[in-house]
């Protein structure tokens, strides 16, 4: 039975009986600071420590604009990543594009057109990546991200947090509980690109794990289409383990037309962190 608002789910196995076993269950989940300690510092140095401190707090209505901006910019970064870097994860698509390039030479007998074929294919990938991701953004910004208060803060079992640095919102994360299978899902994690590399994403992830432990959830789960390896390493550093992946994932807003299938593919990975045996 859960007493405070629960959160989202992800997958990996750890022992939750010991509080220290769950990342983010100490004061670190409330405030993260890069300097080691302020005990031996003079007053001016203490002020510097506080300026560098990242506080994780619950979402407030006044955060809406900054939260939507961070979410929007984070998703927009996936357009070139999916179009170009994501192609490395699609060997079948690479082979198909190479075949189309060769066919172009035999059909046109033109070296110039053949040399242009890869550029045309990459241009088409960028166009469809932009089209699909814009559709996904439009869907998200008109559903849960349109009214965070109503979607995450009011319902029991859900919550939304922001990371604040020097008075500015620099990161976001959400959690949504699933009472049917006693799991909580980690969602919408994103950090302002200007403040990455400071451990903010890890602190946000720990807050969700702390929330799950406090509310007696059995597991935390998440799904991601991130192309960058750093995102996957972050989840693994928090204790998550990959439980599966799909090479033909369908994002909200996709129409799955033949051209869209040819020029847009995305890998969807599922992670789980098991907090306790059910």
Low-pLDDT segments, ≥5 res: 3-41, 43-49
Strand order of the largest sheet: 1-2-3-4-5-6-8-7
Average predicted local confidence, pLDDT: 83
Gyration radius over CA: 22 Å
Q: Tell me the overall shape.
A: elongated
- Report the structural category: alpha+beta
Brief descriptors of the model:
transmembrane; single chain; eight-stranded mixed sheet; 278 residues; mitochondrion; endoplasmic reticulum; alpha+beta
Write the layout of secondary structure elements.
Elements: E1 31-32, H1 43-52, E2 54-58, H2 64-76, H3 78-83, H4 91-108, H5 111-141, H6 148-153, E3 158-165, E4 168-178, E5 183-191, H7 200-214, E6 219-224, H8 229-237, E7 241-246, H9 258-263, E8 268-274
Parallel strand pairs: 5-6
Antiparallel strand pairs: 1-2, 2-3, 3-4, 4-5, 6-8, 7-8
Helix pairs in contact: 2-5, 4-5
Write structural notes for this entry.
This protein has nine helices and eight strands. The protein is elongated and about 65 Å long. Helix 2 runs antiparallel to helix 5 (111-141) and helix 4 packs across helix 5. It has an eight-stranded mixed beta sheet with strand order 1-2-3-4-5-6-8-7. It is of the alpha+beta class and 278 residues long. Residues 3-41 and 43-49 have low confidence and may be disordered. A hairpin with a 4-residue loop joins strand 4 (168-178) and strand 5 (183-191). This is N-acetylaspartate synthetase.
Brief account:
By secondary structure, this protein is an alpha+beta fold.
């Amino acid at each position: 039975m859960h007493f405070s608002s629960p959160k989202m789910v992800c997958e990996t196995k750890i022992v939750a009986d010991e509080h220290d076993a769950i990342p983010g269950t100490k004061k670190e989940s409330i405030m993260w600071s890069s300097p080691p300690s302020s005990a031996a510092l003079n007053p001016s140095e203490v002020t510097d420590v506080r300026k560098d401190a990242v506080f994780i707090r619950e979402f407030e209505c006044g955060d809406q604009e900054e939260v939507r901006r961070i979410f929007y910019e984070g998703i927009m970064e996936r357009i070139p990543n999916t179009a170009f870097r994501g192609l490395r994860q699609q060997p079948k698509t690479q082979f198909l594009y190479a075949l189309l390039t060769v066919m172009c030479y035999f059909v046109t007998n033109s070296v110039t057109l053949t040399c242009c074929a890869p550029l045309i294919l990459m241009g088409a990938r960028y166009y469809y990546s932009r089209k699909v991701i814009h559709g996904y953004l439009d869907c998200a910004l008109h559903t849960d991200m349109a009214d965070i208060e109503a979607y995450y803060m009011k319902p029991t079992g859900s919550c939304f947090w922001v990371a604040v640095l020097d008075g500015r919102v620099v990161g976001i994360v959400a959690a949504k509980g699933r009472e049917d299978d006693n799991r909580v899902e980690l969602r919408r994690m994103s950090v302002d690109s200007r403040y990455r590399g400071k451990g903010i994403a890890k602190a946000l992830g720990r807050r969700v794990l702390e929330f799950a432990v406090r509310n007696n959830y059995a597991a935390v789960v998440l799904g991601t289409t991130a192309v960058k390896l750093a995102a996957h390493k972050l989840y693994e550093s928090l204790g998550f383990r990959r439980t599966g992946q799909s090479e033909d994932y369908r994002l909200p807003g996709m129409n799955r037309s033949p051209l869209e299938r040819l020029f847009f593919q995305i890998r969807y990975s599922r992670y789980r962190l098991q907090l306790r045996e059910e």
